[in-house]
Amino acid sequence: MLTRLEVHGFKNLLDVHVDFGPFTCIAGANGIGKSNVFDVIELLSHLASGTLMEAAQQVRSVAQGHSGDPRDLFWDGHRERAEPMEIRLAAEMIVPGTVEDDLGSPAEATTTFLRYEIGLGYEHAEGAGSIGRLLLRHEELHHITRREAARRIRFPHSAKHFRSSVLVGQRRGGPFLSTGQREGGLVVNVHGDGGSFGRPQPRAADRAGRTVLSTITTNDHPTILAARREMQSWRRLALEPSALRAPDSFADPRSLGSDGRHLAATLFRIARTGGTSGAPDPEAVYAEVAGRLSDLGDVGVRGLEVEPDEKREVLTLFLDEQNGLRLPARALSEGTLCFLALCVLLEDPTVKGVICMEEPENGIHPANLESMLDLVRDLAVNPAEAPDTENPFRQVIVNTHSPGVVQLCDRGDILVADTQLQTAPDGSVTRALSLLPLADTWRAKHSVDSATEADLLAYLAAPAGAQLRVPFDLVG
User: Fold this and answer.
1) pLDDT tens sequence across 217-230
2) Largest Cα–Cα distance of the chain, in whole Å?
3) Is the Cα torsion angle 146, 148, 152, 156 positive or negative in sign?
4) How do residues 369-388 score in pLDDT, each as one tens digit?
5) Would residue 262 be called left, alpha or beta, if left means φ above 0 and alpha means ψ between -120 and 50 degrees?
6) Would you put residue 171 in left (φ > 0), alpha (ψ -120 to 50) or beta?
7) Treating both helix axes as pointing N-terminal to C-terminal, what angle do 263-273 and 282-293 enclose, rounded to 10 degrees?
8) Measured in whole angstroms, how far is the alpha carbon of residue 157 from the centre of its chain?
9) What is the pTM of this model?
């Protein structure tokens, strides 16, 4: 769970500090950089697995652009100067207490509330016809004590049921990862879980080409591995109707892809292994998903199931309507498919970590917005209770420019995204993204600036040129 994110110098996130709860809605206009928040979370996730350059190539704007230039990640990457400013990121997170290493062996974290810091630089290409590369400038992993946790976990939660269950263990001594200088250059020291005991293992950082955290694959360093697994679980969900309609073979993965692919295979697996509601019971799982899907008022759902075709070796999801029609998933509307995919995710106890969603209202009729938002919020862990199979340790962050979504959100869940004038390190004044909590909410207590309903006026009032309004005799 990502509890706090600090970003300096990434795209138009010049200086952003933001606290997250189980559910967060970032509201702002098109084109101001809301998605850059998701990009930096996605970058951190990729940095936990691949090389620096691979991670950069997988970030949205670079991966979809034509250049693949890592300078695209820096706020001033293409200015005429020796090199762009360093990207500095920090993430405070609650990590799982038990994880598996790459060999399938269990690893028990010494402590589960951690702060990860990383600095990335850029080195220009030496010859013509090539691009430069990213450099690891700084990497640290620190523990946060239980005493500090009481003030660092800022969202409303139950200390008895939630905090005491997710914060386990303790550590005495220094960090798990630290950065230093040796004769050969910059090194990242790997410290054992025993605290100050044992000598640190220095690893060269200047030419490593990847984070040290991403190289921890066994249970020799269980807490660093737990941090890596947590970051790897952070995902961006961008559901595509074509992917949701794609057929699944028996050999396909049985987990939902970030674009919604493998919907039928995922539901088939949950029905046979058990969902968040209990033991394996296909009929109960299908009934649970169908019941939630029926929250869409324009879909008459009698039932659904995934039917295996042994001859063709394919899995097909069928929806049975109240009028007797039996429809395959490929015949369903885009909005229904997206809602169905989230219903399936809700039942999947294996899905944990951070889920970032762009504009969940897309394809949804205004009358169904409340049902969609309720479903998205229900994906997130309930912080009043201890996480378990029925309350998976999931976190949801969405962005939107929809008035309907903003009006349905709790004030404490909203961050107002806008661009403001900020002073860059070189003294220049530029516009950069800011994320402001609403006044008198839990985030505002720890924020220098806050927003008010006046900043959300565009979401709360009818447009000036509105041609249709609710008649007075229908109001109330």
Assistant:
1) 999 999 999 999 99
2) 80
3) positive
4) 999 999 999 999 999 999 99
5) left
6) beta
7) 130
8) 20
9) 0.94
